[in-house]
Amino acid sequence: MPMNFEDLVNIAAKLRAPEGCPWDREQTRETLKPFLVEELYELIDAFDDNDTRGIKEELGDLLFQIVLQSQLAKEEGQFDVHDVVDGIARKMVRRHPHVFGDTSLKTSQEVLVKWQEHKKNEGKVYGSAVAGVPRALPALLRASRIQMKATKVGFDWDKIEDVFAKLDEELGELKEALNKKRADEIEDELGDIFFVLVRIANFVNVNSEDALRKAINKFTRRFAHIEREAARQGRKLHDMTLAEMELLWNEAKKNSG
Predict the structure, then answer these.
(1) What is the DSSP string of 43-62?
(2) Superfamily for 5-93?
(3) Which superfamily is assigned to 139-206 in CATH?
(4) pLDDT tens digits, the chain, 257 residues: what are they?
(5) Is residue 198 packed enough to be buried (19+ CB in 10 Å), middle (13-18) or exposed (0-12)?
(6) b (16+ CB within 10 A) / e for 107-139
(7) Domain segments of the chain: what residues?
(8) 106: burial class by Cβ within 10 Å (0-12, 13-18, 19+)?
(9) How many angstroms separate the Cα of 185 from the Cα of each of 1, 128, 197, 202, 204?
(10) pTM of this prediction?
(11) Is the Cβ–Cβ distance between 203 and 163 less than 8 Å?
């Protein structure tokens, strides 16, 4: 007989009980935060790999982190997982009146406008147009979200050529900082360049976080080819010249992209 959601809730409670698991009983919201982040990114990896089995498993791991955090809150007399489910279910119904009510919204843009109205009615109003983006987001994703908010109020370039001009300007400032050998200025200018690159990505509707993650995956795949070929030749990487490794790199590019 398959286990269900209530079974999972009871398992979390049992693990945290006096006779439960010593490790689980020691955990706090703070100590569990890294596991929550890790499970989320393992799920994203499974998505990227189109791994159906992995997606199912990682969704379960992420769900358990939510249940476990809710169990900790229950022990503190704050709320339990059923309150969490009730809250999100009611929010989804409230924010989709065109589905669960009498409101008529025909386009996704109309839906987004209405969604923001509901957020304001719920008290989620910020003093700044670019506020409300979680500080804990990965830097590229946070930059993208903040830029999107700025764009909504008209703070943006009109055409992508203007963004490339800004990129050229920032690259020039980085070169000046490098010439001065000022670490703080170099860091600052590198940050500006990353920020402009994210703006270029937004301009062409590319997710900068996905783009960089795919580039990293491509690099590791090609580097693994270099390692395999070097091993096949009975050689160690640190004994090879850069030119020799670049030959294998180009071979990897040709064979696997």
Answers:
(1) HHHHHHTT-HHHHHHHHHHH
(2) MazG-like (1.10.287.1080)
(3) MazG-like (1.10.287.1080)
(4) 899 999 999 999 999 999 999 999 999 999 999 999 999 999 999 998 999 999 999 999 999 999 999 999 999 999 999 999 999 999 999 989 889 988 888 898 888 887 777 777 776 666 687 888 888 889 999 999 999 989 988 888 999 999 999 999 999 999 999 999 999 999 999 999 999 999 999 999 999 999 999 999 999 999 999 999 999 999 999 999 999 999 999 999 888 76
(5) buried
(6) eeeebeebeeeeeeeeeeeeeeeeeebeeeeee
(7) 5-93, 139-206, 210-256
(8) exposed
(9) 62, 27, 18, 26, 29
(10) 0.71
(11) yes
Take residue 147 and report the two structure tokens written for it: 């830029």
And the tokens for 140?
């590229």
Tell me, yes or no, if the two domains 5-93 and 139-206 fold the same way. Answer: yes
